[in-house]
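ligand=zinc ion
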Amino acid sequence: MEEINEMIITCPTCHEKESAKSIMKEIEIPHFGKVLETTIVCENCNYKHNDVIALEQKEPAKHQLKITKKTLSSRVVRSQSATVSIPEIGVKVEPGPKSEGYVSNVEGIIVRFENAVKRALNLFSDKDSLEKAENILEKLDELKKGKIEAELIIEDPFGQSNIVDSSAIITLLTKEELKNLKTGFTIIDE
Ligand SMILES: [Zn+2]
């Protein structure tokens, strides 16, 4: 069951009064609990932000899942504080001021990576970077079609994220791993 709550607010970016809409949605995720998804959209400056928070206290954890044709539809909760990576393909999103939290599925994560790489393509001019990006896009496409398999890793120092799949491996993050997790700098982000 979803509970939706809408509010008209002052935009946090352009500060125009009553120009932004805040939509809060409570979603029950099986085997994880309730999450609150917040979307803010401003009509005046087109600011848009999305985030999710888990409403129940969770432990800092690392979630690993083999991406196969079968697990493409598995649900994923990515909070703003999580690092998401597919090491075999060479893509990684770290938390940053612009990073977003969302409820999606494994395929949705791949599409977000594709979009991030496509945006980055426009910034590259040297041949090596372009070739590397094209190669990543090709692999992401094969992954999305279930032609190849790779591991998805989500690490969240605040335990707000999850991969809902019975074959996912969950391990609590060690102090050392927590220290190495970035909480601000972004390499590729949405
Ligand atoms: Zn605005």
